Amino acid sequence: MINNKNIIKVLVLGVLLLLCNVVVGCGEKANHDKKTTEDIAKISIDEERIASHHHADDTEPHTHNHSSQSDTSKRIMNPDSIEELWIFPERKDHLGSGGMLQIYMDAESHPNASSGFAKYELGVGGALPEHKHNKTEEIAYFISGEGIVISYENAKRIETVVKEGYVWYTAPGEWHSFKNTGDTPLKLVFATIPNAKHGLLNFFKKVSASPGKASTALSAEEFATLALENDMILKPAKID
């Protein structure tokens, strides 16, 4: 028969071994959990470093000018706050067949804008001299009135009737003009691209006058020079 004392010793030894395994297992789990926590923390730090690195190297810098964004006068222009000019007035107190120009956006008021924008009212019987722009595109929308747009195709002069709702596009290098054939002002709004400092709107400023004031008298040579300086090339008159 097996000695009871030996049985007790075996049981005690088994219990001790079991306890040792439990203690060791708990220690390993604690170390594993600690390592896992450290690894997670390390990954989080690395991700933050990567994100910070990408933001610094790959993201465009913020260039927003919050003061200009809050300036609604640069975003919303009303008729009472824009520049109004008379183009080719007959007298300082009478516009006649000349044109009334309202400039909403140009290189002076909106230097960072891609295009200028204005409204033009050509008086009854009025017309602009035929001209072209080497660098400037124009897009016009007719609001009211009736007129004729003059353009050229394969050196052939073409006259096209325009009225409310018509859009007129002129590419750089194209000879063009328009005239009022109706009995009311021919009204249109137009954009000039690019918004150049020395461009069409600047030319109009130089040859115009504020309502009620006399415009500067220019000789034909001075007029042509001023036009050329502002990308407005006058078409040479045809000599018969």
UniProtKB/TrEMBL annotation:
Keywords: Metal-binding. The keyword Magnesium does not apply. PROSITE patterns: PROKAR_LIPOPROTEIN. Residues 53-63 have a biased composition (Basic and acidic residues). Residues 53-75 are annotated as: Disordered. One of its GO terms (molecular function) is metal ion binding. Residues 85-224 form the Cupin type-1 domain. This is Cupin type-1 domain-containing protein. It comes from Winogradskyella eximia.
